[in-house]
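#onboarding

Welcome to the new folks! Below is a worked example of what a typical request in this channel looks like: someone posts a single protein sequence, and someone else replies with the predicted structure as tokens. Don't worry about understanding the tokens yet, we'll cover that in week two.

Example request:
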Amino acid sequence: MERTKLIFMVILGILGLIIILQNTEPVETRILFATLKMPRAILLFGTFAIGFAVGVLVPLILIKKDRRIEGQREE
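Example response:
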């Protein structure tokens, strides 16, 4: 099972590297009132990072809120 995970992670890493190497041309992106010019790979990575952070933080906030509500019920 551990070997399968390692192989899967290596394949994902190689695919990520291919995406980065193929998307180096600059693109313009508007964020509110600013226009940023950056390589598409950085834009993709930034979008991924924001999505990952939201995906991790929202469940943590909901779990903390749920625990607080359960604590109030026991009192």
